[in-house]
Amino acid sequence: MPVRHVQIWLDGTPHQVPETLTVAAAVLQLRGWQGYRRHVDGSPRAPLCMMGVCQECLITIDGRANRQGCLEPVAEGMRIERQGGSVHDA
Amino acid sequence: MAQRDFLIVGGGVVGMAVAYGLARAGLSVTVLDESDDALRASRGNAGLVWVQGKGVGMPRYAELSFEAAKAWADFARELTERTGIDLEYEQRGGVDLCLDAEEARSRQQEYTTLQNASSFLTQEFRWEYLDRKALTPYLPGLGEAVQGGTWSPHDGQCNPLYLLRALYAASHSLGVDTHPASAVERLEATASGFRATTPRGHFEADRVILAAGLGARTLAPMLGLSDAVHPVRGQVLVTERRPPGARLPTPQIRQTASGGYLIGDTHEDAGLDKGVTLAMMQTLADKAVRIYPDLGEARLVRSWGALRVMTPDGNPLYEASTTHPGAYNINCHSGITLAAFHAGGLSDAIRDDRLAQSFPQFSGARFHVPAT
Amino acid sequence: MMPDVCATDIAIIGAGPAGMAAAVRLAKVGHRPVVFDMNATPGGQIYRQLSELQVSEAVMGKDYARGRELIDAFQRADIDYRPGTRVWWADNDALGTSLGVLEKGQTQHWQARQLILAGGAMERGWPFRGWQLPGVMNAGAAQILLKQGALVPATPPVLAGTGPLLYLLAWQYLRAGIPPSLILDTAPATRYGEVVRQSRRAWFARSYLFKGARMIGALKRAGVPIHQGITTLEAQGDKAVESIGYRHRGQWKTHSTELLLTHFGVTPEPQLARSLGLTHHWHASQQSFVPQRDDTLAVGANLWIAGDGGGIGGAINAEREGQLAALAVLDKIGQGDPEWQRERHALLKARRRDLEARSLLESMFRLPEAWLDDQPEETLVCRCESVSRGELDRAIAQGGAGPNQLKAFTRCGMGPCQGRQCGESVTRLLARRLGWTPEAVGYYHIRPPVHSITLGELATKE
User: Fold this and answer.
1) Is B137 on the interface with A (CB under 8 A)?
2) Does C151 contact chain A (CB < 8 Å)?
3) Which of B259, B50, B41 is nearest to B155 (CA)?
4) pTM over 0.90
5) Quick check: B245 contacting A, CB < 8 Å?
6) Do domains C125-264 and C377-441 have the same CATH topology?
7) Mean pLDDT, consecutive 10-residue segments, chain B of 372 residues?
């Protein structure tokens, strides 16, 4: 099952990922769930549902904060930043 | 068990403030409330503790608003001490924005007239019109399209939902019993007081206070009280939490203590429909982005419509029944600002049965002038 | 300034089995419905990524591949399919339903004379201590990763909860060479008695039961321990899951793992139906609210709900319901054909049997209604606003006597997920504390936006 790959930038580093992945899936594959996001109460959080329900996958995509990573497919040249440090991200 | 001193019809912020005030004075109180999906202006309002603009055409109302705003800090502290609930109250001043030159002109004229109408306000009411540039220190990031606004140091804000919760908690600790899902269907006098009929049975007390908001339209006439209230819908948008800013509250938009921006101040006649409309949501979004352009990136998380309880002149209704002594009607659209007064001076006047003597201007009789 | 309104005779929201089947059936008689869907490819959750397969049938099993035919038909038909769109607002109007649609950052205003909601289901939010920790994921989410890119965990996970999906995922991981280290089921072992007690239903459910037995047999042969009747569950760790704890036969046990995948059944995705003000009833067997539909799946004059969004019936049932809703729409617009009566009867009959079978599964995988009482009071019910069960109990005691009053008192349900994860937990908790039925307790008021939209996207940009 060959699949085309696209280049994305995750926290400033380039990676090749299959184009069928969503942003959240790509981040989980590349970095796992640790450091994915910091919740407004300060606790670490990571994607729960992967289907647009839980809002735990919020992430910065092309400079726009709090995008739902599980609904956005990766795209060539996309810049993704995890929100591990911010406390006002939800 | 001895009959209770008071029945209060309505478990919103008006009814609960009076319940708290009376219970604090040692009286026994039963509150009858509607179901969870009732109209509930108390859960839909913006949470301003606000005086500027209040009382145009009725200076006595402006004075009451001032007294309430002054009493708010102690009132909030007292409720927090009793319940542990932080009301998120602060009084740093507020700004009522003017989006164009015409609004700026008429606003200044209105406030000047208001101030000159009462010696109390001439002395007490401090306000100033500031243009966009002068407003910027108070409202950092203010958009280019805003003309200016009236600033006043008396204005403030709170979390109206936590106020409601604290009033419930404090009232319960003072022995008030509240009955949810007990919408009153009938009110009548008995040999020793009053009886309310609900789907969950009858309740009786020596005296009865109607704090039923729009429910007064059916209930008030049963006791010879005024039904002159009508709904005015307001729609509200709330954004996700944003980093805290030092921006003063405005009736158009304010940042809550939890970080979300609350956007509102619309006025519509929509009957009893408390829904939201696409057109009005877009109008509110336009306005929010004009006021604070950085909010263009903010995600909307909630919206709602709520029905203000309005009298014909917009001023509160405080009256004692002349046909049914011991029955009172308390109704207003500013239950947050006035909460400190409702729990204080107003409750005292009801306790002593001197409502008509102390607040004659607020009787419903003003709306029921016999036709000539 | 209002944006121009786009009009359509028939719109469908959702391109899962129900939405695809409805669209295909309508296209067959010459209609060109508009289909809005959040995802980039058709299939919904169940047939996700099947149009560009990433993982082998040997791992996924036959049920996944079965969707191929429907997806092919959907892709061949002349349908105005709009992937990557979000219907964030809907309202009844004189002509049908108005829709606010977000597509590539732009809000469009649509007007649909006839509308089929086929928004499907979501995994039930089911609180336990630590479920907010990274390293806890829904089993469905894990399956989505499998479908999207054949992604599997690096170390063996623990699977906990109950329901067919839990065992399906466990079996798929076994096939993929990474069997779970432990399976914890909240349903008691005595549930197999239901098969005997409900033998007629068991007959209708025989294919589900055989499949389940085969999977469980394979897992047992592979040495995967399965504990049934778990009453308390906990994810433990500082920044992420390091271990889990659970109560089994009254004994507290712990187990090391980095990944806990949970599944507590699925419920209809409620937001759009709720925001339209549709009547809902508590479904005692599905342990969830479902919208009230009539025999034609109608929920309003020009409005239908097909598939799991109307009550959980599974993928095959959803496909049938999509066809039924399409036929109902055609009847409604005066294009019905008496010849279709046979088709309709066959669909209805098959649907009845399937739902009978389903109710046996529901009783076998029944969730403990008292679950929240058995979890410690610091267990978060609302993840978005970090509201614990203990905090809710305090607010209930203070007068928070309904879901909306409780939301006002605590912020429970006010966060970005808009109560999807906590709504029914709150109803359930209030029902227990007040001694009312879940139906009498009710649910949150749901208002638009039902999907996230920024103020800039909403503003009209004069």
Assistant:
1) no
2) yes
3) B50
4) yes
5) no
6) no
7) 92 98 98 94 92 91 95 98 98 97 96 92 95 97 96 97 98 97 97 96 98 97 96 96 94 96 95 92 96 96 95 96 97 96 98 97 87 54
